[in-house]
Amino acid sequence: MDAREIILARLRAQQRDEPHPPAWRSRRHFPDLIARFGQALEEVGGEFLRVANWEGAWEALGKVLDDVGAKRVVVNPDPPLDRFDVAARWPTVEWHVVGRDGDVRSFAREADVGVSSAVAALAETGTVIVASGPAHSRLAVLLPPVHVVLLPASRVTVDLFTWVAQWRGASSPLPSSVTLITGPSKTADIEQTLATGVHGPGRLIVVLVEEGGE
Amino acid sequence: MSPVTLGHFRAQARQALADPFLQQALAGATAHFREGRERALAELPDAEALRDHLKAIRRATLARLADHLETFERRAQDAGAVVHWALTPEEATRIVVQIAREHRVQMVVKSKSMTSEEIHLNAALQAAGIQPVETDLGEWIIQLAGESPSHIIAPAVHKTRQQVAELLSRATGQDLSPDDIPALAAAARRFLREKFLLAGMGISGANLAVAETGSIVLVTNEGNGRLVTSAPPVHVAILGIEKIVPTWADAAVWLALLARSATGQPLSVYTSILTGPARPEDVDGPKHMHIILLDNRRSTYVGTSYEEVLQCIRCGACLNVCPVYRKVGGHPYGSPYTGPIGAVISPLLFGLDQYPALPHASTLCTACVDVCPARIDLPRMLIDLRTETVEEQLIPRVDGWAERGAAWVLRHPRWYRWASRMMRWLLRPFIREGRLHLPPRWDPFAGRRLPAPAPRLFRDLWERGDV
User: Fold this and answer.
1) Closest Cβ opposite residue B249 in set A23, A142, A196
2) Counting beta carbons within 10 angstroms of the beta carbon of residue A109, is it exposed (0 to 12), middle (13 to 18) or buried (19 or more)?
3) pLDDT at B466
4) Same domain (yes/no): B184, B37
């Protein structure tokens, strides 16, 4: 018998009927989802910018790029960013648009900022959720020291439980990589002293677009 | 490794107690985690009910573990991952080395994994001529120092900033100041960034695995878990067979309690959900994904009185409240698994004859049960293991007699009363100003001044109706 058979046989010999508990339902009720999201994000060290529409979003992004002094920016054109030509708005910046401009790896390691959208966000914990795909490089929002998320307000849900219930209801398979991001990269491994940006981005900036569509 | 005997544990514990930096670091870190946990759970509308729910999930999952493992295997394979099964640590390391050789890997990057510590993976890789690089800052520090982790969550809690600066200066060839901790972290970022991009393979553990989608879930705060599983062309994940849940509804409960119980964060900074290797349409990510399911005796405890310990989600909350761990730290345990949970699983996974001291390294105060997100009754199992150490004569005869004597006295109320009186009489000469002052060579309390026994026995007060 190989290891697999031995392990399964041992477990089967002890198998017993025990009802599995039903799914836990979220017990959170936030009067203002967006306000809670922003507050939770700031509590974990993220930066929260709230704008009315996409024009406001570009203005906010422009300020961030200026502030950082960004020369090289990589963008994951996740929906709905695929509807816009983000790169054309800042012709002085060197852009890499994932899915259009070839090898992202060597560009992303030298980039100052990574820009993406998010498939969902959790109000309870201030979390944004990104997913891999043809328009979303994992490294593009991981290697640069700053990650800017342009997030339509409609994508904010209550918590982990409501998020899981939503996509378990849909039948599409999980992307190969889904990442829940809750604040900037941090460590307290040296004398319990907080240091940010140790491997991932040291700044996480979420631009929440109120009338951002779906 | 020589067994962790009572003598070994006591000697190591004495050393730890005599180290003022360690005492301060342990007190600071464990208090920080304890307060964080309390705040985070208080902020939940229903923490106690959620803990009960997690307990029910863990118990029910173990009852049908074979089914869930088979579902997980099938779904992970559907997603393109290769699933391996390992009965022993040696089998697991052999599989990892073989995968590395097939891909002609010379250097691997690792994210923090207790399971890889359990199987001594780094030693096996080095023996095979493959260089392992730990990338969690704390793990990297102790790898550079050639030590073992002293806390499940904070592996380098015992190192001073001066020691860290020295180790990192040597590794990076720079002159780094101990007084600028962000600069130390930045130096580590630059140095390890190159390793991530050059490594032929990434090795991670998994905090949990989800059967319905064949996914593994990995949490880190630094982002090294994301890099290890995104940058190299091959990803190998190693996990114990018990770290599985059937559905995402279950996984959400686990995740809602994991970081809150560990550090007091609502979620760890990064929670990576990985389902197979990169798809053909993906822009990047590993081309190959291997998952190793490690048994190492776990399956032999299902259906026994020790099954409950397999409900553990490895948050480390029990370490932070344990009066023994908080004073002696992780090293006296001589195992990657330390504190109350380590005192139970180290003997179970590696043999009680290797760890006879650990079941005794506890006051049985039950603080660990109070904070465990799965409410695991560790003291019950510690007592069972103690019984085994006495019956199998794994502890010195004198300690065995003491245990047997105590058991006998506790079973006989008259003798218990007599022993209580006797003890008070014997201690009387050593009481000054309401405190016990034992001569140093008999003093088991390492210089702490315990309060003197109360003037009258509680049972006497009770019998006379004075309470």
Assistant:
1) A23
2) middle
3) 79
4) no
CA A187 to chain B, closest CA, distance in angstroms equals 6
* Residue-averaged pLDDT of chain B: 95
A19: which DSSP letter?
Answer: P
Given B345, B362, B391, the domain boundary residue is B391
**Interval A84-129: pLDDT, tens:** 999 999 999 999 999 999 899 999 999 999 999 999 999 999 999 9
pLDDT (0 to 100) of residue B148: 86
- Residues of A with Cβ-Cβ distance to B45 under 8 angstroms: 27-28
Asked if residues B108 and B200 have their Cβ atoms less than 8 Å apart, the reply is: yes
The residue among B265, B298, B331 that closes a domain is B298
The 3-state secondary structure of B348-413 reads HHHCCCCCCCHHHCCCCCCHHHHHCCCCCCHHHHHHHHHHHHHHCCCCCHHHHHHHHHHHHHHHCH
Q: Compute the nearest-CA separation of A136 from chain B (Å).
A: 7
Do B294 and B321 belong to one domain?
A: no
* A68 lies within 8 A of chain B by CB: no
The pair phi, psi for residue B434, each rounded to 5°, is 75, 10
- Are B332 and B9 contacting, i.e. CB atoms less than 8 angstroms apart? yes
Please indicate, yes or no, if residue B72 is contained in any of the structural domains. Answer: yes
B54 within a domain of the structure (yes/no): no
Complex confidence, ipTM: 0.98
Number of domains in chain B: 3
- Over residues A5-60, the pLDDT tens digits come to 999 999 999 999 999 999 999 999 999 999 999 999 999 999 999 999 999 999 99
* Residue to test with chain A: of B51, B162, B163, B189, most A Cβ within 10 A: B189
Query: Does B60 reside within a domain?
Result: no
What residues make up the domain containing B219?
Answer: 65-298
Give me the CATH code for the A28-187+194-209 domain, please.
Answer: 3.40.50.10420
Whether residue B208 is found in the same domain as residue B243: yes
Q: What angle do CA B266, B271, B275 make, to 5 degrees?
A: 150
Binding-face residues of B in 269-298 toward A, CB within 8 A: 269-279, 281-285, 293, 295
| Total CB pairs under 8 A between chain A and B | 257
Give Cα separations from B384 to B348, B378, B381, B411 (angstroms).
12, 10, 5, 17
d(CA B224, CA B220): 7
Do B86 and B221 belong to one domain?
Answer: yes
Residues B424 and B453: beta-carbon distance below 8 Å = yes
Calculate mean pLDDT across residues B35-42: 98
- Residue A159: list chain B partners with CB under 8 A: 256
Cis previous bond, B182, omega within 30: no
Closest CA to B324 of B3, B54, B30: B30
The set of residues, in sequence order, having a beta carbon less than 8 Å from that of B46 and lying 6+ positions away, is A27
Q: Can you give the residue ranges of every domain in chain A? A: 28-187+194-209
**CATH number of the domain to which B269 belongs:** 3.40.50.10420
Same domain as B201, residue B128:
yes
Q: What is the pLDDT of residue A1?
A: 81
* pLDDT tens-digit series, residues B357-387: 999 999 999 999 999 999 999 999 999 999 9
Residues B109 and B223 in one domain: yes
| Predicted confidence (pLDDT) per residue in A164-180, tens digit | 999 987 778 899 999 99
How do residues B197-256 score in pLDDT, each as one tens digit?
999 999 999 999 999 999 999 999 999 999 999 999 999 999 999 999 999 999 999 999
In B, which residues are within 8 Å of A140 by CB distance?
A: 283
Residue B171 buriedness (CB in 10 A; 0-12 / 13-18 / 19+): middle
